[in-house]
Amino acid sequence: MSNLPITVTVKLFAVYQEVYKLPELVLTLPSQTPVSQVLEHCINEHPQLEQWRSVTHFGVNLQFVSPETPLEDGDEVVLIPPVSGG
């Protein structure tokens, strides 16, 4: 296990894309950072996202994962907010 930083791509959808006005972010994080820290990063930058914390799910490399899942260099992360439709 390395202590080198990792780079992940965060795909933004729905409310996250609306707040950031970007389709994705590229973050540099410590090795073995849990995916939940990506959400923490977003909430720290945009506190209005706090309301979505408890209902956001996580995806890494096209798989649903638990918040504790450690990230690896090159991972693609998706924050999945609730979807409304009609």
What topology does this entry show?
Elements: E1 6-11, H1 14-20, E2 24-29, H2 36-45, E3 57-60, E4 63-65, E5 76-80
Parallel strand pairs: 1-5
Antiparallel strand pairs: 1-2, 3-4, 3-5
Pfam families: ThiS
InterPro entries: Beta-grasp_dom_sf, MOCS2A, Mopterin_synth/thiamin_S_b, ThiS/MoaD-like
Protein name: Molybdopterin synthase sulfur carrier subunit
* End-to-end C-alpha gap: 47 Å
CATH superfamily: Beta-grasp domain
What's the number of extended β-strand segments? 5
Given the helix and strand composition, which structural class is it? alpha+beta
Q: What is the rounded Rg?
A: 13 Å
Any overview of this molecule?
- The protein is of the alpha+beta class and 86 residues long.
- The protein has one domain (5-80): Beta-grasp domain (Ubiquitin-like (UB roll), Roll), CATH 3.10.20.
- The chain has two helices and five strands, in the order βαβαβββ.
- Strand 3 (57-60) and strand 4 form a beta hairpin.
What descriptive keywords fit this protein?
alpha+beta, 20% helix, Ubiquitin-like (UB roll), 86 residues, 5 strands, 5-stranded mixed beta sheet, globular
